[in-house]
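Reader question, answered in our methods column.
A reader sent in the components of a multi-part assembly and asked whether the whole thing could be modeled at once rather than chain by chain. We filled in our standard form and ran it. Here is what they sent:
COMPLEX SIZE: two components
ENTRIES:
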Amino acid sequence: MTEPLGAKAGEGQPRGERGFPAAGASTAMEQLYQQVILDHSRARSGEGELEAPDGESFQVNPTCGDECTVQVRVADSVVDSLAWTGKGCSISQASLSLMYEMVDGEPVAEAEKLAETFRELIHNRGQELEEDKMDLLDDLGAFTGVGRYSARVKCALLGWMALRGALAQAQHSQA
Amino acid sequence: MTKLLNVAGDFPLLDRTVRGGKPLVYLDTGATSQKPAAVLEAERTFNLRHNAAVHRGAHQIAEEATEAYEAARDAVAQFVGADFGEIVWTKNATEGLNLVAYGFLNATLGRGGGDAARFRLAAGDEIVVTELEHHANLVPWQELAAKTGAVLRWIPVTAEGRLDLEKLDVITERTRVVAFTHASNVTGAITDVAPIVTRAREVGAYTVLDACQSAAHLPVNFGELGVDFAAFSGHKMLAPTGVGVLYGRRELLEALPPFLTGGSMVEIVTMESTTFMPPPQRFEAGTQMVAQTVGMHAAVDYLNGLGMANLAAHEDQLAKLLLEGIAELPGVQVLGPTETTDRLAVVAFDVPGVHPHDVGQVLDDQGIAVRVGHHCAQPVHRAFGVHASARASAGVYSGPEDIEAFIKGLHQVVKFFD
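And here is the structure of the entire assembly that came back:
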């Protein structure tokens, strides 16, 4: 009756082009909780606080009370440093961790483009976006399956809402 | 061992499958209950045959609708040990609790005349709540305190997740209101109401009971409990959404100023001012949710047919199975008493290292519906040192096989995130 849940995505599974298990090749839970998500939720990158950030944003998910704060320092239109703190589920924590890895040190314009593309992916009901967008998203493509579960959309996007708020504040303070 | 009830067949929704053909295991009754066919049928029949606005119109179906609406009030009154005139229809328990809080506020603003003076609050007065409350019985009192200058105090929770009755000295001569839950929607603990009512009476404070979880799962008699006000929701006790009940002792309802104003609750309206009807109509402004009250009547009849004592005994056994099953899982912490004495089959728990959302997701994948998050009770989670929890809550239609599936599912959760 119940599908096996024990096996981890990846091991011995046929893989799609991008290295994620191909649709239909794993259980629904393995599709949702890709290995990259589980890994980032455990060994998180970029957790911490900045001294004197230019922008900061606190976001809370009212349905579960999960929260995060993202801080940025911006210099010459580049995200010079990014740090975050928060508590939440594996989806939200992994999303923040990957966000750090992909945004820290990147131009603000690139960060905003990535944020917008990620938002589009999460709202795409579990389907991948066009190839160029998936290329841009890189490891964030692991979150494709989250879009299938409307209750988890906010989990994936919480950190990115905070990023948007922090960047807006940083740009405002420098204007 | 008491014989278990076996009534899942009365609840059409429980027949369905979820997530690709998996049988539904519904353990989220604490959030909202499923409805028996009798309730759905009563609502449908009302809408098909008797629908009209109540307390107005002289035509036949208006009379039928009014009779159905008032018969439902009578049935609910008997169900909770109240008189007919002590039952006010609200849209839910939240509205009922706000009705009382706003009654105090309106009295403080001078409304309701001399009769309402007993409800006036002044700076230095105190309102006592508890750390165990659902936000619905906390936030309205925070707001009332902020608006009136009264001070909010609270009864703390014990390590076991019960109200700390050793700390009732927080109720003092300055206390005007004591608002507390009859049964926690997180810890499942059933409150020993008597010492709190006794203490409140000693100092002349009014008591307000949140009976949302209790009215649906235990025999409840507000008259015997001796509380001044109590609120509960229909949708948690097999009735439709959109209908709830406020109980108030008659003499208090007669003195309390109205909360919502408008049509249906007035006597004489001039351009300058208005006189209000006696309770309960004074508190039932606007067109009412008549079909839902009819559904509530059917729910009460259904529960009476089973017998609330039988229902409580049934759920007690499910609570035992839940607690025993969870205890098998190493490290899983129950947020609440771990034995079934004075406890509902509402079990919130923390799986170390796994966020409740992830717990719920993997259970959902197996067709098991539980609640995840803070369950509208952030302070009690904070008291337990956790941010959120997952919660399994059983109902009259739940059986041992549901608990078994849930425990098995929980083992899968632990394995999946290991």
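What stands out: The mean pLDDT of chain B is 97. Chain B touches chain A through 26 residues (CB under 8 Å).
Send us your own complexes using the same form.
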